[in-house]
Specification:
It is built from nine helices and nine strands. The chain is of the alpha/beta class. It holds the Pfam family Peptidase_C14.
Length: 284
């Protein structure tokens, strides 16, 4: 009988010493992780964590995913969620064909580069399913311009405020100035991470990965009072388990309820598994 493991990461703050004095305060990421862990537990998953703020270090997240890879076999499933800031570092191993930037999860003590995440996925056995929800964004440039390009009405709908400073605090992206300062200071460490890893588009990933992210690469994810906008909308569509459709139908239902400037994105990577996206979410 297949088994399901779940890992849930949520950061309402990071260590200022690791990010040039920036604490990255958010309001709802920890609750996102707690709520996702609750759904997973109710569905019969073996839940790890949730890993909240100080507990969500790069070492802990890496060790947790490596342990999961050691337990799961063909037919099993990992449900992985992240809620927090997204960041970017320059792409050195040429695996990004567009903006030449690698995306990151902004963990408590350092950024986890997407190359590291894909390398971890490569440790899972053939036939394992990985469902990833990432409620974060990655473009600090877009985040900085957002109050200028959206109307007061649009800002109020997404962030419950139209005040530019408050909107800035409710965007799940590391500010561009902080990204630049952190990379300048810790460049050797982040360059070494990329230079010792195979480009992700060439990495052999035998697991099937289905990722639903909170927004497109050129958009931002909004934080909230209780949940992030993406996570809160997903919970409404799920309706405590009354939702009866597939992963793709869940994605469509969320997109239909989101504002046009934040469009959740579904993508499949790793080993082809066309049946995966047609299965019911939270099904082990």
């Amino acid at each position: 009988m297949p088994i399901g493991l779940s890992v849930h990461i949520g950061l309402n703050q990071v260590d200022p010493a690791a990010y040039d004095g920036w604490s990255g305060e958010l309001g709802a990421c920890e609750q996102d992780a707690v709520d996702m862990a609750g759904l997973a537990d109710a569905a019969g998953f073996d839940v790890t964590g949730p890993l909240l703020s100080r507990a969500a270090t790069a070492e802990k997240v890496t060790a947790t995913l490596e342990a999961a890879a050691g337990r799961l076999a063909e037919g099993d499933i990992l449900f992985l969620t992240y809620a927090g800031h997204g960041g970017q570092v320059p792409d050195l191993n040429h695996d990004e064909t567009g903006d030449r930037l690698d995306e990151t999860w902004v963990l408590y003590d350092r950024q986890l580069v997407d190359d590291e995440l894909f390398e971890l996925f490569g440790k899972f056995a053939k036939g394992v399913r990985i469902w990833l929800l990432s409620d974060s964004c990655h473009s600090g440039t877009v985040a900085r311009l957002l109050p200028e390009v959206l109307s007061h009405q649009e800002l109020d709908r997404r962030f419950s405020t139209a005040d530019p400073q408050e909107v800035g605090r409710r965007i799940r992206a590391m500010p561009q100035s902080v990204q630049s300062a952190v990379y300048r200071r810790d460049r050797d460490a982040y360059d070494r991470i990329q230079n010792t890893r195979t480009a992700k588009d060439l990495a052999r990933i035998d697991a099937s990965v289905l990722r639903i992210s909170g927004c497109q690469d050129n958009q931002t994810s909004a934080d909230g009072i209780v949940n992030g906008l993406f996570t809160g909308t997903l919970l409404k569509v799920w309706r405590g388990g009354a939702f009866a459709g597939s992963y793709r139908a869940l994605h469509r239902g969320v997109v239909q309820r989101m504002p046009p400037d934040q469009t959740p994105h579904l993508v499949q990577t790793g080993a082809p598994n066309s049946a995966f996206a047609r299965q019911r979410p939270f099904t082990i």
